[in-house]
Amino acid sequence: MSVLDRKFYRCDTLQVARALLGKKLVRRINGIELAGMIVETEAYCGEADSACHAHRGRTPRNAVMFGEPGHAYVYFTYGMHYMLNLVTEAKGRPCAVLVRAILPLAGIEEMEARRRRKGAELTNGPAKLCQAFSIDKSLNGWDLTRGEELWVADYKKIPAESIITTSRIGIDYAKKEHRDALWRFLYRF
DNA sequence: CTCTCGATGTTCT
DNA sequence: GAACATCGAGAGG
Fold first, then answer.
1. Is the CB of A85 under 7 A from strand C?
2. Domain limits at A177?
3. Buried-most residue among A27, A95, A163, A173 (CB within 10 A)?
């Protein structure tokens, strides 16, 4: 299964967010492989996007977004949750795609143990999938093109007509034009 | 199913 | 000191 290379990420963030649907997110931990198909993403498009963490410039937290594409930007929020983002576009452009939901493919029992839950509640939210995959701040800045620990690989070709777009979730603080932008992508099968 | 609300601690003002 | 790219429990329909 081919690991997505740097070139895949060094593209327009909206295109990457769309192209990630149907790809496989893989986490290898202690020799065990957890995997899931990406079914929901959101694009965060740099300093001009008032919903993006980079909107107010570079800080210690968001520094990874300003670096090379193809790295993981993992941050902690609400006092208890981690979120996984994949850095996009050329170095210096602080853009990323938030992975909001995946469909479990492998290592389901491991995910159930970490989540203390079963079925649909396993990975159907950005913090839930981080918990299921044991993704925390130690993976902030991780190079996804290495194909170790955490990466994304080709998996399934998605027809354009089965992709739905909506506005992004949980960004009431942003300007109206960014609140209303259709920058959330869902694979509806 | 829907809605409301509290948890919890890091980050930046 | 306020805000936060969320989740889960509980109440009600």
1. yes
2. 6-187
3. A95
Q: Is nucleic acid strand B under 7 Å from A60's C-beta? A: yes
Identify whether A162 is part of a domain: yes
Angle, CA A133 vertex, CA A156 and CA A8 arms, to 5°: 40
Q: Count structural domains, chain A.
A: 1
| Tens of pLDDT, residues A113-134 | 999 999 999 999 999 999 999 9
pTM of the model: 0.97
Mapped to the 3 state alphabet, what secondary structure does A89-151 carry?
CCCCCCEEEEEEEEEEEECHHHHHHHHCCCHHHCCCCHHHHHHHCCCCHHHCCCEHHHCCCEE
Cβ of A56 < 7 Å from strand B? Answer: yes
